[in-house]
Specification:
two-stranded antiparallel ribbon; 273 residues; disordered C terminus; 67% helix; 11 helices
Length: 273
């Protein structure tokens, strides 16, 4: 006689003794579904099979299946409506969730604004040096648009938009490399930086004259970089950018902004595309 799903789960736990920790069946089911979601076999917006069919497919108990569903829901990979009989809705992985967890990790490590800026310095100059052809032309257009928006926002003293433009500029620069890994990492860092700056500005209640002038100089520096890239002088542009970023780091440290700690990401800061 075949064992029931629940008795099967109980027997598995003791097969190799108490010292061996086998994964719970709920975690195995969640892992199987997670793989299908991340691989794209289960598309965002699609619906998982009804509960009765899922029970037959995985041959597990109802409590085990529901625990697996709760795991995926906690990871924001699915949305469970009222009851599970109709099947959960697939959400898929989101950058917002990655931003949230990365923010928690950086905050727990005591990362500062200066540290975040230095992270950019490791990869942005080499990216500029490697820009060629269509990637270079596309980058210049997008970067110039960022600068124009920043200048317009600064004239209106719309400092939050200036900060967002600054981060968008860095993100656009990295995206121009065509490297998906670096683009994703940078997008996460920029969103964290965006919120951190805005929270610090809000805490101060106003923007200091020094920071106001620095924002103006920032836009000018970005424009100078675009000028060099438009002329195809990528080596000169990379050297300029390294020097510019070093001076920006000096300003952060001199103004005490650099020593400010990052804050947990609230998930409320809008990301500009």
């Amino acid at each position: 006689m075949a064992k029931s799903a629940s008795s099967k789960e109980e027997s598995l736990s003791g097969v190799f003794g108490a010292d061996i920790r086998l994964p719970k069946l709920s975690h195995l089911v969640a892992a199987k579904l997670r793989d299908q979601i991340v691989s794209g076999n289960l598309k965002p917006g699609s619906q998982l099979l009804p509960e009765t069919q899922m029970l037959e497919r995985f041959n597990v108990s109802r409590p085990t299946l529901r625990e697996a569903m709760r795991i995926l829901e906690a990871e924001s990979l699915i949305t469970i409506g009222r009851g599970m009989r109709k099947g959960a809705i697939v959400r898929g992985p989101t950058i917002e969730k990655a931003i949230e967890f990365t923010s928690f990790m950086l905050v727990s490590e005591g990362v500062t604004m200066s540290d975040l800026h230095q992270a950019r310095m490791y990869f942005e100059p080499p990216i500029i040096r490697g820009l060629t052809g269509e990637n270079l032309e596309t980058a210049v257009i997008a970067l110039r648009d960022c600068v124009n928006r920043m200048v317009a926002a600064h004239k209106k003293r719309d400092y939050s938009t200036v900060v967002a433009g600054t981060n968008r500029f860095h993100e656009t620069l990295v995206r121009a490399s065509g490297n998906k890994t670096m683009s994703l990492i940078c997008a996460i860092l920029q969103s964290i930086s965006d919120e951190a700056y805005n929270i610090n500005i809000a805490a101060e209640g106003k923007v200091s004259s020094a920071l106001d002038r620095n924002m103006e100089k920032t836009a000018l520096g970005y424009s100078n970089l675009c000028d060099l890239l438009e002329k195809g002088k990528t080596m000169e542009a990379a050297n300029f950018w390294r020097t510019y970023m070093e001076r920006a780091l000096e300003f952060l440290n001199r103004s005490s902004i650099g020593e400010k700690l990052l804050v947990p990401h609230s998930g409320l800061a809008a990301r500009s595309e």
